[in-house]
Amino acid sequence: MASAASVTSLADEVNCPICQGTLREPVTIDCGHNFCRGCLTRYCEVPGPEPEEALACPLCKEPFRAGSFRPNWQLASVVENIERLRLVSTPGSDEADTCREHGEKIYFFCEDDEAQLCALCREAGDHRAHTVRLLDAAAEPYREQIQKCLECLRKEREEIQRIQSRENQRIQVLLCQVATKRQKVIFEFAHLSQFLEERQSVLLAQLEKLDGDILKQREEFDVLVGEEICRFSSLISELEEKHARPARALLTDIRSTLIRCETRKCRKPEAVSPELGQRIRDFPQQAVPLQREMKMFLADICLDPQTSHPKLLLSEDQRRVQFSYKWQNSPDNPQRFDRATCILAHGGFTDGRHTWLVTVDLAHGGSCTVGVVSEDVSRKGELRLRPEEGVWAVRLAWGFVSALGSFPTRLALREPPRQVRVSLDYEVGWVTFVNAVSQEPIYTFTASFTRKVFPFFGLWGRGSSFSVSS
């Protein structure tokens, strides 16, 4: 079987010099050159010499008469055989490349009707006045349009992919935030559960003691009542016996007997003492401090602008503070720190358990101090950060954490905390610091609180900041 290359080479030999396509109904003119009948007919119709005058061959320019060309049947047979070989040797070629009406190969495209035409279709009256071009020439503008559409679609697809990537990243951030908040909720409720269990134990112990006191007083009451019943039973038996005797025996010592009975006073014991009854009645009031402590435990921590040093910038919601070397125009009131760059929280505490979260951002190696202070801590002049001065705090600075005791102690931690949870137990006297992310304990102060205490915060360093939350 002939190869595709050889068939293509043969097909090039039987092309029409005018339309550059395979010869259709080939005719030969006087000089021996062959052309498609339709192509040569249109060539002869071009305005020029009179019909009887000679025309020039499109190839060699030899003269020929318009009516002198002859059909070349042998060449037509060769062209037909070459076309057949081309269909057989070209992969994927089929009847789709030929005109259904004429069975001829399709070479042209009518742009008016968007129809693919063979040479015979082109000569038909329906397409004579239409714009007809060779397939490749007609396809080129459409290729350019398709290319532009592809570029636009690819850009749109890239934009959608960028949006997908951006939104996926956003979703991951939100999922991480939810996971963090979930851990926070778990920690909060575990801490709250421990607090409730401890308070429950205290209240149940008090109720248990009330039970014991009631049972003890009931035993004492039973003994006392038993003794009284026994005494009265003895007197009743004595009088019953006296009453049943004859007159002479009844009158013997009758006066002393009656005196003893008349002067006998009945003691009226109480099963429950008034003091114990009052304790039982007052017990529901024991839950009131618990409710108050619960409210305090869950209360938000807000910072007090009246105590803020002028170099501290306080946010509008009073939850975030940033250090600035520029002094703020703040009135010098008695509550404000004038030398130590510190600030206190609103309210303060005189009882109960409380906890709050401090998120620290030390941008350029600054420092942040967190803890609690007594209400009488020095606000003016130098502030010594140690328990003897009413300050129980830790300091985060330069990647280290120090407990500010009588002598500052650098703590050995697995990692410097960025979120510190501070817990205050006023009655027990504990101030506890925990890494809120890793739950690693940091330090615990033990104190004996006698005055109101406030959450305390200190900050130093350009760009350094902290925020508080419950």
Automatic annotation (TrEMBL):
Cytoplasm as UniProt keyword: yes
Gene3D superfamilies xref list: 2.60.120.920, Classic Zinc Finger, Zinc/RING finger domain, C3HC4 (zinc finger)
UniProt keyword annotations, A-Z: Coiled coil, Cytoplasm, Metal-binding, Zinc, Zinc-finger
Pfam families per UniProt: PRY (PF13765), SPRY (PF00622), zf-B_box (PF00643), zf-C3HC4_4 (PF15227)
Predominant cellular place of this UniProt entry's protein: cytoplasm
Coiled coil (residue ranges): 143-170
GO annotation terms (biological process): innate immune response
Tagged with keyword Coiled coil: yes
Organism superkingdom: Eukaryota
UniProt-recorded Gene Ontology molecular function terms: zinc ion binding
Location relative to the cell: Cytoplasm
Record-annotated B box-type domain positions: 94-135
Residues annotated as domain B30.2/SPRY: 281-470
GO cellular-component term (any): cytoplasm
Sequence similarity: Belongs to the TRIM/RBCC family.
Protein's recorded name: Tripartite motif containing 10
